[in-house]
Amino acid sequence: MKHETPSFHIGPIPIHGDVILSPMDGFSDWPFRSLCRQLGSAMSYTEFIKAEDILEPPKQIADKLRYEEDERPVVIQLYGDDPDVMLAAATRAQELGADIVDVNMGCPSKTIAKRGAGVGLMRTPLKVARIFKLLSASLDIPLTGKIRLGWDDDCRNYPLIARIVEENGGAMIALHGRTKEQGYGGKANWEAIAEVKDAVNIPVIGNGDVVTVADINRMKEYTNCDAVMIGRAAIGNPWIFSRLDREKVSFEQVRQMMLKHLERNLAFYDPEIGLVLFRKHAARYLSPYPLSKEFRKKLLTSECPEEFLSLLDEIFESVNLSPREGGYHPGPRSHIG
Ligand SMILES: Cc1cc2nc3c(=O)[nH]c(=O)nc-3n(C[C@H](O)[C@H](O)[C@H](O)COP(=O)(O)O)c2cc1C
Fold first, then answer.
1. What pLDDT, on the 0 to 100 scale, is given for residue 3?
2. Rg of the chain on CA atoms, in Å
3. pLDDT 10s digits, 79-123
4. Angle, CA 287 vertex, CA 283 and CA 288 arms, to 5°
5. Ligand 1, residues 176, 182, 218, 280: which to mutate, most atoms within 8 A of Cβ?
6. Is the distance from the beta carbon of residue 284 to the nearest atom of ligand 1 less than 6 Å?
7. For residue 67, which of 40, 86, 47, 84 has the smallest C-alpha distance?
C-alpha cells in the first residue's frame, strides 16, 4: 500500500508504510527483500551480520551487504557484544551507505546468545547502555534495536532494555514477543508490545505471529505499535506486504513471482548457488498445492535452472485454472508426477 505521508519517522527518516519484512538469516537476502519492498514492505533490513565480519567482509558477507538504491531506507543489522567492535562495525555500515544501523538483541542461536550477543546481550543491560550510548553519539544515522521479551520466564526484562535503548539514543525498538527460551514456539505476547509502546516515546515495531492481513490490523489495534514486522509468514507469500492474503493470490501471480524471484537469485548469485538458495522459497510458494512427493523432490533437488523451469511449467500447465479470473484453486488437474 503506497503511503503519501510518512506513517512514522525513525530519527529524521520518514517511513512510508506500516508493514515490514523481518530480517531473516538465509531468507531476507537481496532477491527476496527487494521483491517484498516493491510489494509494500516499508523498509529493507539486511540479514544479521557479525560485527567483526563487516570490518573485513568475506565474500558471503559482501553479498549480504549489497542493496539497491530503491530499497531505501536500508537497515544494516549487526550482532556483537563488544562496544568498541560494535562501534567500528556500525561506522563501517554507515560508510557503506546504510540509512539505519540496527543492533540484534533477539537471536537465540546457542553460538551467538551464549557468547553474550543476540538475545544474550539482553542479559547485560549495562552493556546495552554502553553500546547504544557510544554508537548513537558517534553515528550520523539512527541506531535502533530489535529485542525479545528476555532470556526466559524468569528474566523478561524487555521493559528495562526498551528504556535503556531509548535513554541512550536509540531511535526505534522492534519487539518480538517471545523469550529466548520460547525460540519460535508458543504464542507471541502482544500485551508486551503494547506495554513497550506505552512506555517509550520512540517508535515501536511489533513482531510475532502476524500471518494474515487481519493480523496486521489486529496487532496495530491491540498494541498501538507504529508498524508490524512479518517474518515466517512472508516466506513464499510476499503479497502480504500489499495487504493481499495468500488464498487470494492466483496461480498466475504465483508463477510470475516465482519466475521473477528465481531470475533475481540467478543474477545475484552464481546461477548454481542461486538455484540452490531458491529451493526453500520454491517449497514455500508451492506449499498450498498438492504435488506428489516424487515430483516435489524432483523439483527441489534439480540442479539445473532450465530443468527447474520446465518442471515449474509442468506444474502450472496442469493447474486447474478457474473460469473466475485470479481464483485460487489448489488442485492440479492431473496428479503431477
Ligand atoms: C529463519 C529465520 C532467520 C532469522 N534471522 C533473523 C535475523 O537475521 N535477525 C533478526 O533480528 N531476526 C531474525 N529472525 C527472527 C525474525 O526476524 C522474527 O523476529 C521472528 O521470526 C518472529 O516473527 P514471525 O512470527 O513473523 O516469524 C529469524 C527468524 C527465522 C525464522
1. 65
2. 20
3. 999 999 999 999 999 999 999 999 999 999 999 999 999 999 999
4. 160
5. 176
6. no
7. 47
- Ligand 1 atom having least distance to the Cα of 230: 26
Residue type, 14: P
* pLDDT the model gives residue 317: 82
Measure the CA dihedral 168/96/100/258, to 10°. -150
For the annotated catalytic residues, the residue numbers are 107
What's the rounded Cα separation, in Å, for the pair 65 and 8? 25
| C-alpha cell read off for 29 | 537476502
Ligand 1 pocket residue status of 210, Cβ below 6 Å: yes
The model's pLDDT over 186-227, given as tens digits with 9 standing for 90+, comes to 999 999 999 999 999 999 999 999 999 999 999 999 999 999
Q: What is the DSSP string of 77-124?
A: EEE-S-HHHHHHHHHHHHHTT-SEEEEEE----HHHHTTT-GGGGGG-
